[in-house]
Design a protein that fits this description.
about 60% helix; Four Helix Bundle (Hemerythrin (Met), subunit A); two-stranded antiparallel ribbon; mainly alpha
Length: about 260
């Protein structure tokens, strides 16, 4: 084994050449650098884990907090619900019920009573439309609208019965229907159920009766207008009464099915 000096002449370089043809342990492998030529790997000074993004500030190792879930929007107060346009119309209809009864049974001003009844029918149609157009549907409106309809129907039936405009056998089934529905609503509330929703048949029956009542008022007297209005009023009354009773039967079936579900 022969030792020589490096080109710089400073340190001996190992040739490690053997005359027997094998390499000694000190001979470097092909393609590798000598041990003294290897540079130490630089130390990390950022203090961040491998693969973490570079940014100013310390790295947080805490688990991310879950995003807050948005809860349901709070329902407006009763005062705010009462001040929207559809509910104002429903409140005006409710306020007109005692005035309507007084006009029919007191001074018997059928013209003013007819105007008030037409106004009630128009606002009954308009408040539902406005609630959908203005996106002002509310729980208070869902209670006021059917309440105003039923009060007007009951008030008109009582006044017409007192004045012999319609016979008692037309009034009794309609009033009995309201009494049965009242019992159903009370029973459902005691069991934790909401009142049954208004069906299309029930709403249609209310509209037909509200159209029948003005014609029945116009039918009073012996004028030509009364002669034309009389058959129209009777037809609307029969049609509306049948639908009104049938919708009551459907409400009773809904209440019975709901109560049966709680007992099973």
């Amino acid at each position: 084994m022969a030792w020589g000096r490096s080109a710089a002449g400073s340190a001996p370089a190992a040739t490690c050449a053997s005359t027997l043809g094998w390499r000694s342990p000190c001979t470097p492998r092909p393609g590798s650098r000598p041990a003294h030529a290897r540079q130490p790997e630089p130390r990390r000074t950022t203090g961040r884990p491998t693969g973490a993004p570079l940014f100013n500030g310390p790295v947080s190792t805490a688990a991310p907090e879950p995003a807050a879930q948005a809860g349901p929007a709070a329902e407006p107060s009763l005062l705010r619900q009462a001040l929207n346009v559809p509910n104002i119309l429903s409140l005006l209809r409710l306020a007109g019920v005692p005035v309507f009864l007084w006009l029919l049974l007191g001074p018997r001003e059928d013209g003013w009573a007819l105007a008030l009844l037409v106004f009630s029918a128009l606002t009954d149609w308009l408040d539902g439309k406005l609630a959908r157009w203005l996106n002002q549907m509310s729980r208070l409106g869902q209670l006021l609208d059917p309440a105003a309809d039923r009060l007007y129907i009951l008030a008109t039936l009582i006044a017409f019965l007192v004045r012999d405009i319609i016979p008692w056998w037309v009034v009794v089934p309609l009033v009995l229907r309201e009494a049965v529905l009242g019992v159903c609503v009370v029973t459902l509330r005691r069991r934790g159920f909401a009142p049954p929703e208004v069906t299309y048949i029930g709403k249609g029956a209310t509209f037909v009766l509200m159209y029948a009542f003005p014609f029945l008022l116009l039918a009073q007297g012996g004028s030509d207008v009364a002669a034309v209005a009389r058959p129209i009023g009777y037809a609307f009354t029969i049609w509306g009464a049948v639908l009104y009773v049938w919708s009551g039967v459907l409400y009773v079936v809904q209440a019975r099915n709901a109560l049966r579900g709680t007992t099973q």
